[in-house]
């Protein structure tokens, strides 16, 4: 190609000129002037690090680099924000020169660095991504945590906390936990020389019997899934800390979400969420979170997240950010509906027993009254998940098959109302001899439909399950 070419000549001349401008020659070497890119660290005063302080790329210990975000602050707002406002008004884009009103999806695997000797805040999405940082910062603030870490599923988040254990350590876990966690602990974690005890964590004496010098993690759900068993988190935390400062109290708070309960404020060290449920709220993707209370736990979980490559994708992080904006109004409506459904079931002759965190039948024993008192002392709500028994596995199966609005599926926390039989679906992985659940148990996840339509759907399902029987009258008092 010739520089005399009437079409390409001017272009080639400009390229040659720009190359001369970028390259300087001296007797020793050739210096190429690379363009520099502004980074978030450059924009945010106080975060810029000098090349000499950070050193060359070859001297950086990636294992020592903290990739997790610090909890968000609202320094620009003089008054503390209420929870509902935080969910919507959180601004993750303060440093973006384009000032987007909604967090963009940084759908990229890698990030270009300013030079070989100086790095920007991100290099590889497995280790960090702006969209992921945004949702982790928001959830850390909502949970009152030092830091939060997103994972690609709730099970990945649960698996991450078990990495705090070494061979020879022991885990104490509730005996009516989610079936997936039971499977993880009993069939995988045990392979690595870690002993697991399944006990009733609401019983302080049962916990004391298995506590020992090897105990590393105590993991619980409150309310538990699906029997709504309540654990006094303040009491359990005090019991563990009095025994050993080494023990980590982990709470799966998926049933409540940070809107209804914040276990870190009750003495927990770690909070786990399956974001697939209430946080997302639309049953359209899977994700999980681990929220930590101390820098030491944050560093440990950050290392696991990066080393195992289980972080949430940018697009899924964006979906969570979108879901969190409506978290409060969704949960308020779902709770209101759940209260109405509980009242309906509690007075229906086909129902034997109703399990709901804040519900206590009129003839309840002192133990159940105490559980209700404990729950309402540590949570704002009874939630939107409940379960009930019918006294017959066959009848429960018929009810499942007869509903129309309620969808037969695992999971909970969706905008739509869901129904399942835990012993058949969500907890089927637990061997029958180890399950502490009634075989006829039905679990309902109440959505945001009109409550009268939900009750009507259950009523017609009861009639369909027992044709020719009068099942519409109320229980006699």
TrEMBL record:
Keyword Lyase on entry: yes
A Gene Ontology term for the protein's cellular component: cytoplasm
Gene Ontology process terms (BP): methionine biosynthetic process; transsulfuration
Requisite cofactors: pyridoxal 5'-phosphate
Domain of life where this protein originates: Eukaryota
UniProtKB keywords: Amino-acid biosynthesis, Lyase, Methionine biosynthesis, Pyridoxal phosphate
Entries under PANTHER family matching the protein: CYSTATHIONINE BETA-LYASE, TRANS-SULFURATION ENZYME FAMILY MEMBER
Family: Belongs to the trans-sulfuration enzymes family.
Stated name of the protein: cysteine-S-conjugate beta-lyase
